[in-house]
Each structure stands twice: as C-alpha cells, then as structure tokens.
Amino acid sequence: MEGISKESLQRLPTYLRYLNELHLNGIESVSSTTIADRFKLNPVTVRKDLAFISEDGGKPKTGFSVADLVAEISEFLGYNNTQDAVLVGVGKLGSALLGYKGFSNYGLNIVASFDCKTDIQIDSTKREINNISMLPDLVKRLGVNIGIITVPAESAQAVCDLMINSGIKAIWNFSPTHLITPDNIAIKNEDMAASLAVLSQRLTAILKNE
Amino acid sequence: MEGISKESLQRLPTYLRYLNELHLNGIESVSSTTIADRFKLNPVTVRKDLAFISEDGGKPKTGFSVADLVAEISEFLGYNNTQDAVLVGVGKLGSALLGYKGFSNYGLNIVASFDCKTDIQIDSTKREINNISMLPDLVKRLGVNIGIITVPAESAQAVCDLMINSGIKAIWNFSPTHLITPDNIAIKNEDMAASLAVLSQRLTAILKNE
DNA sequence: ATAATATCGATAACAAAGTATCGATATGTC
DNA sequence: GACATATCGATACTTTGTTATCGATATTAT
Ligand SMILES: NC(=O)c1ccc[n+]([C@@H]2O[C@H](COP(=O)([O-])OP(=O)(O)OC[C@H]3O[C@@H](n4cnc5c(N)ncnc54)[C@H](O)[C@@H]3O)[C@@H](O)[C@H]2O)c1
Ligand SMILES: NC(=O)c1ccc[n+]([C@@H]2O[C@H](COP(=O)([O-])OP(=O)(O)OC[C@H]3O[C@@H](n4cnc5c(N)ncnc54)[C@H](O)[C@@H]3O)[C@@H](O)[C@H]2O)c1
After folding, report:
1. What is the pLDDT of residue B134?
2. Whose C-alpha in A77, A197, B100, B106 is 20 to 30 A from the C-alpha of A63?
3. Domains of chain A, with CATH numbers?
4. What ligand 1 atom has the least distance to the C-alpha of A192?
C-alpha cells in the first residue's frame, strides 16, 4: 500500500474531532456525505481518506461506524502512544505552548523546557526551565525524539543543530526561518507568514468582488 | 492571467525572507538554482513562482535582481498597505500573538483585543483589553476586515458568527475547530493537530528506517 | 571575435490530488 | 417479497502541481 498523502493526513485530525463530537452525542454511524458537507469537501475525498485508515470500511446505506473510525484514526495518528518532546525558547509563544493542555490529546507530551535566560523567567505552569546547556544530556538520557523551537529567528538554526546533535529526530519550528536539516530529520516549519499570505490573498479577492 | 496557486503563495514569504537576507549582505542578483538549493526545491518551481510576481523576469546567466524581487514580493503579499485586525481571546496564546512584533513585517496590525473577562487579565503589552460586547461597534467604526480567534474551541463558532455579523471578512482561527462560514468570508484554520500529524508521520517513517 | 557556460522562459511530460460515474449492496417502505 | 434509495468501493477522468527538456541569451574567458 502506498503511503497516505500529506493532504489526507492533515484532514484526519479534523475528521476525528468531528467524530468525537458525534460519538459524544450517541450517534453511531455517519456517511461520507455528512462528513463532506460539514467540511465543504467532496464525499469521494472523504471516502478515500477513510479507506486508508479503516479496516472494515463503510456499509452501503448506513455509512461508517463512528466508534470504529474514532479508534482507527486515533491509532493511525499515534494518539495512543504519546511521544515526548522538549521545547526551547520559553518566551511569549513558548510559554503559551508549554501551558497548553491540548497537546496531550494529540499524543504529545512536553517533558522539559529550555532557555538561555533561566534565572529571569518563570513559566506560568511552574514547570522548571532548564538552561539550554542541559539539553543534550537530558535528550539523550530520556531518548526524546521531538524538539519544539520557539526562539528568535537568529538563534533558531543554532538550536536546531544542537537538537540534532543531541539525537532529536523531529523538529517543530515556530520561528520565521526555514531551517536547514539533513534528510533523516523530520522538520515542520510552522510559518505564520505563509498562512497569513493565503488568508489575505483570499480577503483581497473577496473585497474585489463586492 | 490565472490566480497564483496556494502552494506558490505559501512559498513566497519564505523566498522573501531569504532575499531580504541577501539584500542585507549586499548581494544584488540570485539564480533560481541558488534559491531552490536553499529550500530543497526544484529550480523550475522557483522560476514559475517568481514568474507570477516578477515584471521583468530574470536574466540568463545572472538570474534575478534581488532588490526587484524583494519589492515585488512585498507588494504582491500586501506588506506595503497594512491591514487592521482585531483579536478575541486574550489568554495564553492570544497574549503571545498580541505581543508579537513580527506581524508588522507581514502587513498586519492588531488594533484592538477583546475578551469576556476584561477585568481579570492584563495584557503584557499594556494594551487595553475590551469587553467582547464592544466588538461590533469598534469593527464597524474602524472598518476592520480581519479577525483573529484565540478563544477555547467551545466559544469559537459564536465568536466567529459575531465577527461576521459585525462586518469582518477574513478570520484567522487558532482554536481547534473547523469553523462554519459562508463562502464570502475568507477563513484560515490554523490547525496545530494537522501540523503535528504530518511531523509525527515523518518521524515514524524515519525511526522505522533506522 | 569566438567559444563556453550558466541561466532563463516556454513547452511538454509526468505525478498527484480531486471529482465524476457506475455497478453493487444494505436498509427501510409498500 | 419486490422496490426505492442512500451509500459504498472501484474505476475512469480532470485538474493542479511538479519536473524534464530545449532553444535562446547574457556574461565571462580565450
Ligand atoms: N509571539 C508570537 O505570537 C509568535 C508568533 C509567531 C511566531 N513567533 C516566533 O516564535 C519565536 C518566539 O517568539 P516570542 O514572541 O515567544 O519571543 P520571545 O522573545 O518572547 O521569546 C524567545 C525566548 O527564546 C529565548 N532564547 C533566545 N535565544 C536562545 C537560545 N539560543 N537558546 C535558548 N533560548 C533562547 C529567549 O531568552 C526568550 O525567552 C520567534 O522566532 C517568533 O518570531 C512568535
Ligand atoms: N496555548 C497554546 O499554545 C495553544 C496552541 C494551539 C491552539 N490553542 C488554542 O487557542 C485557543 C486559546 O488557547 P489558550 O491556551 O490561550 O487558552 P486560554 O484559556 O488561556 O485563553 C482563552 C481566552 O479566551 C477567553 N474567552 C473564552 N470565551 C470567550 C468568549 N466567548 N468571548 C471572548 N473571550 C472568550 C477567555 O477568557 C480566555 O482569556 C484555544 O482554542 C486553544 O485550543 C492554544
């Protein structure tokens, strides 16, 4: 079987949230059409997405079992075996992420945070902030695979290199730089400027039409 | 001319940052190959992207004028005429965004923030937090087009509806819900779970190969 | 001047993602 | 029990995005 496409993969968490809602409301089955309507998608797209992760598939006339889908998507996305992560850069954004409860739903657990100015800042969640020099040892000791970068752009590449040298295999980068990484490292640049570009382009189109 | 593709559009801010760096270092021209190498892209992809926004195009052997590209991409992305925005939900994430200096580079200016608990919280930037009930009037008065949502998922749809009723035309949603909006509203759901799904999928693949 | 070369833009080939169509099949209705 | 219908999965088609190819053209070196 081919790997799932990036687009399908990104739709799965959205489906899952919706399915959890249905589940909570006691709804036991759902059709691809219903899901598609909710998210302005084509039903065929939804069926193809679900075909990747669903063992039994859907039944004619009734659709898919909500409970099954919830279990299968959760499993597929790795929400059942939580991954540890470290975060570097406990500033405004880093603190917000550290204090965010939502990540546990997504199988992510931030086990330690690091900054260069540990003496000054206090994390709102009262978790300890370690000096960045402690990172390599801790990462190696705990076998942490994921690193989150929330430092200023100028420091991001250096932090990235340090993470990789310490054994980190996946990097989630919130600083506005496209990090340079070897091919055996997973990297996701969370580029707000790119998002904003898409949004304001659409806004311009809408304003022009009115 | 056809509209630019979403993918191209999202690459432009990345190019721009790089070009600004080159510009700062006094480099006057750059080839599509050089840009492509920097971001692990195909040179043809880069040339096509630049063809959309560049008036004169590049010159054989030398490439593109850095200064021209910087000016043209900035203009194309609307960085020269700043758009006003309002933010609702001055919690952990909302405060971080409010205090973020970077948005001014992207032509975004947050002119006011709102919450339902204005008396309790103090924004780190000392800007005033308005009660959510003030939103419609202010948005209408200032003609604000963009709304940023950083409230809990449960409240997000209600805030979204309020924004739309007040005249907001573009919504940047950071809560983990896919908001339901009419077609004449631009919406960007900033779904961290989707990003994380992509990252951890790649991580899994990498770990499997080792 | 002439030749060598890096680069461009245009066009064409390819790949991937999305959409339409259609026969098969559960489920509920007459 | 026959019939209508909602839905599925498979296949085919369309659209969109990426990559390869190639002739044309500045620039540099001989
Ligand atoms: N604040 C936001 O809402 C926001 C939004 C989008 C992107 N970003 C990006 O996220 C990053 C962080 O933004 P912020 O607003 O939280 O900035 P911030 O200045 O509040 O925090 C940055 C933190 O990183 C620490 N730091 C700097 N260099 C370091 C190093 N080499 N090692 C360890 N720690 C180091 C600083 O001490 C500081 O605590 C920036 O790159 C920013 O562009 C922020
Ligand atoms: N904190 C993070 O790093 C993070 C990361 C990803 C996504 N998010 C999402 O962003 C949103 C905000 O997260 P947070 O951590 O800042 O939460 P938070 O609880 O710190 O802040 C939420 C704020 O919204 C306000 N609010 C609630 N209902 C409101 C309403 N109807 N009108 C106006 N204001 C209202 C609350 O008073 C509070 O100040 C959530 O949806 C969260 O899932 C947060």
Report:
1. 96
2. A77
3. 6-77 (1.10.10.10), 83-193 (3.40.50.720)
4. 6
